[in-house]
Write a structure and sequence with these properties.
Elements: E1 2-6, H1 12-21, E2 26-30, H2 34-41, E3 45-48, E4 74-77, H3 79-87, E5 91-93, E6 99-107, E7 123-130, E8 133-136, E9 142-147, E10 154-157, E11 162-165, H4 177-188, H5 197-212, E12 216-221, H6 225-238, E13 242-248, H7 256-268, E14 272-276, H8 278-285, H9 291-313, E15 316-320, H10 325-331, H11 351-355, E16 358-360, H12 368-377, H13 382-385, H14 405-424, E17 433-447, E18 450-463, E19 471-472, H15 477-490, E20 494-499
Parallel strand pairs: 1-2, 1-3, 3-4, 4-11, 12-13, 12-15, 13-14, 15-16, 18-20
Antiparallel strand pairs: 5-8, 6-7, 6-9, 9-10, 10-11, 17-18, 18-19
Bound molecules: xanthosine-5'-monophosphate (XMP).
Length: about 500
């Protein structure tokens, strides 16, 4: 396998992802735990990540010196390249200008790293982000690619198989970056490239067994794909030492709660406590119209209910969560200042501290599309795995104004029609998220010979890769008018339908 030494870059997990895409297994270890990881893993290659530090600070992080004497290939990226050069006797100078963003490099030498990929004299686009730069190369090193801002954009010691890149091959803005990393892992390190999600599954199962021993684990299900995949994986590892708790707040979409219950109990035979807390949630939401007040009430009540169920089950030491890597990046921000709260997101964060439980988070290093792949590998039905994201507070934040059972029922019907039409048109997978919103506005209409005075429903559909930014989905007018007609005809309580044309930013995906 490959050992990735993490110096605190925000994109270290992307390196791991590129290595996985090359079909090679890797593990990330923080620089101060790299020694132990090396002994345990006996890697065939090492990648040193980038990071925010400068080698000029006294306590800046280093790679264990013995890694350079182990006789295995090493690839240093950005800060990783700088510390490698300095640790091997070269020098690094503080940059006066720095290079950030798109840059072009020119290949000036041959290298095993470029085999079958880049040739001398070619120019290639890369993504740079650095202040410091290498000034004098260690003995045995030569430049193999240069850029305007970095005469040592790529350097290597071909004999020792050490490579340094000043740019970031792991990000998508370096178009050949994934291939460079694959070249390092397979061609230079000689790894086979036959690692698959099936092996990830097996490795995680072993890890979960080791962590949990014969302890008891509880897992909160939300109806979404992340917690479902985590639960199924953990169940495969430890069987009935796992109990799942599904706090049903009554704010789910049409048929969704039943699907969760039958998937777990019937399809997988996983012990599941289904807590029907609809009345509790709806009573608490009476008269609440402020979006943040709704979110806070739902988040807090969810935790209360979950905690009391956990106590009833008793004796569980571990709490399982379907935390993904993007959730981790957002929580460990390097931006310095506190960021403004746009919305208080509801997830079970905060529970572990309060309940003094240890966390089991088997999906922590994966991205959403990888979780979906793992879900398929575990046999989760396609309609579950490919499902659009659904927010923790559920329909409550899709009903601006007061949330009542009646309004939830109206919205559920409209939303189901909209999604059914999207599926029938074969558009579901092209859309990141689509849903209906029930507005607290009534307008006048005419049906038959009667005047109507009913609610307005807004339809939303967006494309996105991570939910951070989004664009509207450009339906045909005929599609939208078909959905509008069906909703007004079939859902009593709605007499007008509009389509939301706002991208994010400036809008958010959800309305509240
Ligand atoms: P916004 O509305 O902020 O949403 O553009 C971005 C993505 O996050 C989802 N979302 C949530 N997910 N708990 C969640 O787990 C929440 O409280 C929550 N609020 C919004 C939203 O559906 C979109 O995918």
């Amino acid at each position: 396998c490959i050992l990735i030494v993490d110096f605190g870059s925000q994109v270290t997990q992307l390196i791991a992802r590129r290595v996985r895409e090359a079909g090679v297994y890797s593990e990330i270890a923080p620089f101060n735990a790299a020694d132990a990881a090396f002994d345990r893993l006996k890697p065939k290659g090492i990648i040193l990540s980038g990071g925010p530090a400068s080698v000029h600070t006294d306590d800046s992080p280093r790679a264990p010196q013995r890694f350079f004497e182990a006789g295995i290939p090493i690839l240093g990226i950005c800060y990783g390249q700088q510390t490698m050069c300095q640790q091997l006797g070269g020098s690094v100078i503080p940059g006066t200008t720095g290079e950030f963003g798109r840059a072009f490099i020119e290949v000036v030498g041959r290298s095993a790293l470029f085999d079958g990929l880049w040739k001398e004299g070619e120019r290639h686009q890369v993504w740079m982000s650095h202040g410091d730069k290498v000034d004098r190369l260690p003995e045995g090193f030569h430049p193999i690619a240069i850029s305007e801002g970095a005469p040592y954009a790529v350097t290597s010691d071909e004999a020792r198989r050490f490579f340094g890149v000043q740019f970031h091959p792991e990000v998508v803005h370096t178009p050949d970056g994934g291939k460079l990393i694959a070249n390092f892992a397979r061609h230079v390190c000689g790894l086979a490239g036959d690692w698959t999600m099936a092996e990830f599954r097996a490795a995680k199962i072993a890890e979960i067994r080791e962590q949990v021993g014969d302890g008891k684990v509880i897992c909160g299900l939300s109806g979404g794909v992340d917690s479902a995949v985590a639960a199924v994986l953990i169940h495969e590892a430890i069987g009935d030492q796992l109990t799942c708790v599904f706090v049903d707040h009554g704010l789910m979409r049409m048929g969704e709660a039943d699907q969760v219950v039958s998937l777990f109990r019937e399809h997988y035979g996983i012990p599941l406590v289904h807590v029907n807390a609809e009345t509790l949630f709806l009573n608490g939401l009476k008269g609440v119209t402020d979006p943040e007040a709704k979110r806070k009430f739902i988040g807090k009540t969810f935790i209360d209910v979950f905690e009391s169920e956990a106590k009833k089950i008793g004796g569980a030491e571990f709490l399982a969560q379907g935390t993904l890597y993007p959730d981790v990046i957002e929580s460990v921000s390097f931006t310095g200042g506190p960021s403004v709260t746009i919305k208080s997101h509801h997830n079970v964060g905060g529970l572990p501290e309060r309940m003094h439980m240890k966390l089991v988070e088997p999906l922590r290093e994966l991205f959403k599309d990888e979780v979906r792949e793992l879900g398929r590998e575990l046999g989760l039905p396609d309609i579950f795995v490919g499902r659009h994201p659904f927010p923790g507070p559920g329909l409550a934040i899709r009903i601006p104004g007061e949330v009542t059972k009646e309004r939830c029922d109206i919205l559920r019907k409209a939303d189901a029609i909209y999604l059914e039409e999207i599926r029938n048109a074969g558009l579901y997978d092209a859309i990141w998220q689509a849903f209906a919103v029930l507005l607290p506005v009534r307008t006048v209409g005419v049906m038959g010979d009667y005047r109507t005075y009913d609610s307005v429903c807004a339809l939303r559909a967006v494309t996105s890769t991570d939910g951070m930014t989004a664009d509207i989905f450009p339906f045909d007018a005929s599609f939208l008018s078909r959905v509008a007609t069906r909703i007004v005809n079939e859902v009593s309580g709605i007499n007008r339908v509009t389509y939301d044309y706002t991208s994010k930013p400036p809008g958010t995906i959800e309305w509240e």
